[in-house]
Amino acid sequence: MPSLLLIIFILQLTIHLINTVGATAIDELLWTLYNILPTRTRSAVQDSKTLRAEAVRLRKEMTATSSQDEFAKWAKLRRGHDKAVAKYDDNANALKTHRQTFTRITTTLRYLGTNGLRLLLQFYFAKTPLFWIPNGWVPNYAAFLLAFPRAPRGSVSVQVWGIACATVVQMVFAAGAAGWVLLMRGREEGVVMGKQGKRREEGVTMGGGGEGKKEI
Q1: Which of 27, 29, 72, 210 is deepest in the core (most CB within 10 A)?
Q2: DSSP per residue over 25-60, as a string?
Q3: C-beta of residue 107 within 8 angstroms of C-beta of residue 53
Q4: What phi and psi values does residue 212 have, to the nearest 5 degrees?
Q5: pTM of the predicted model, to two decimals?
Q6: Is 69 helix (H, G, I), strand (E, B) or coil?
Q7: Which tens digit of pLDDT belongs to each residue from 135-155?
């Protein structure tokens, strides 16, 4: 069985990743993956794409057809376009209802699997010491804070360990983001300096060629 320390760390890491990526992006990805599977909405999504393409095609043909010179053809295209748009709207409304239900379910499951699980662990293991601190390593007030709220004095509680894991994860991600920005900025400055050096070399070459002509 995995250690409770590792479980809490992975849980805090997962929560941070979800908050960083964003719930909307995750829901969009899950909805796309859900429609790839053989579900009842898969055919509806494909029909929606087909109807949309058909409506756009008929709209283009109708625009390219004169309503005065070719009224019969234009009227036929208009009826077909209106029919395709009506089918597309009905299909889109049905998909919208399924999408809202799917989003509610995924949001609930995501909350239960992250923050809900975190609260459950904090309540269930509130009196459980995750690990002990040797005597004399920290003063009494620090030992009280590390054991807050109900863990034995001299130990680290599940709440404090969760806060520590969340803080470390945020610091690591912030340091990684800052390092990436500095790396990209260094590359951009290197490219700019390289272009400037090349221009200087070309200027020196052109200047040297001009002086040679004057001496002749």
Answers
A1: 27
A2: HHHHHHHHHHHHSS-TTHHHHHHHHHHHHHHHHHHH
A3: no
A4: -65, -40
A5: 0.72
A6: coil
A7: 888 888 898 999 998 899 889
